[in-house]
Amino acid sequence: MLLEKIKTPGLSHLSYLVGSGGQAAVIDPRRDCAIYVEKARAAGLEITHIFETHRNEDLVSGAPILAEITGATVLHGPNPERPIAYAQTAHDGDYFTVGQLEIHVLETPGHTDDHLAYALFDKAYPEKAVGVFTGDALFVGDVGRTDFYPDRRKEVSGLLYDSLQAILALGDQAIIYPAHGAGSVCGSSMAEREFSTVGHERLNNPRLQITDRDAFIDFKVNENHYQPPYFRLMARLNMEGADAPPSVIRPRSLSLQQLNSCGADHLIDIREPMAYASGHLPRSMSLPVNMLPAFAGWFVQEEQSIALIASNEEQLATAMEHLVRIALDNVVGGYVGVVPAAAKGEEMQQTPMIGTSEVEDRLNNAECWTLLDVRDIDERNATAIEGSQHIYVGHLNERWRELDQSRHYTLMCASGARATVAAGWLASQGFENLDIYLGSMGAWQAAHD
Asked: What are the structural domains of the chain?
């Protein structure tokens, strides 16, 4: 038997290849799906089934693409928002054979109406499930979010509670295989490890300690989550079926002249925040390569074009992988060479950094100045600097229009990384009086403990 986890960095997406007796199944494949074919063939397996736990919101499903390559059958849950054009519908109680294995379907709505979990059985030991692919219902240390149906939040929170009981009923021995790990936008409290069992989660998962259904509903209804605009694009593509990714996932190289004349909607500097702050090309915004999966979808709209600015070719290749997986891959090219360009006299802009003492002085004395906190609302509610204003970094995609461009803004977050993203976005929209609180809340707390 083969069971291999394939992790997608950045998105913290977990997909799985499981096989036995010459056959294989893939659970929740990503868009760049050649990896599943390669691994299956290396193990002498033919992919016959593709199982989707739900209509993903944070990445493009590779199921229709993988089905086209392999001829495998795609299974998806009932009650989708719109018909899933490329899939057959699986229902509670259905089961599918993959060699020596059986995959049993559990309807587990709550996170989404079409959500399924798949219990994995070994036919040699049919009494108890070996494991369960839990999708976005149950994570290691957390459970799924329930904010996608704002008019039905109590109802779907109750549905998730019931679905979790169905998963728990599989028995403490079952290994759980969730669709995401720590760092995903699909949960806020996931453990760093990516292995667990139903029994361990029953005893230790804080959300499963809420055993009263009404109390669970109240907790879920009062959670805070953000929905980037690109979630709507993912939802549509994952119902219609997305196109295959570009055959070459690497942007073409641009000279500085080509970069300046390319006409891209967004110049995105994917270097480290301190490199961007030290010197960047005019009109460019800061989205460090490791932050692209979380934040590109806030600022880049479908079909808008992108030019990337990087420290090296490896950064460009990684950035393209991230962007392809969320279908924001209209990339006209990539440029490497900010430092040499500066050495040749090319105009550069800088974003100053200030420390705690300067922030304290401005809070007491400055006029026409605002300390703008761009952390999420839970962080803000836990601790905040008196006198600061709050706008979540992602919401600046629209709310920048509320800000006065003649005013001086100091951006802050937990450490400074998201503040650099926020400052870069505001700079690309024409704001000139900007700086960043270096160390941000971490520095503030260290100075005031």
From this structure: 2-240 (3.60.15.10), 256-343 (3.40.250.10), 353-448 (3.40.250.10)
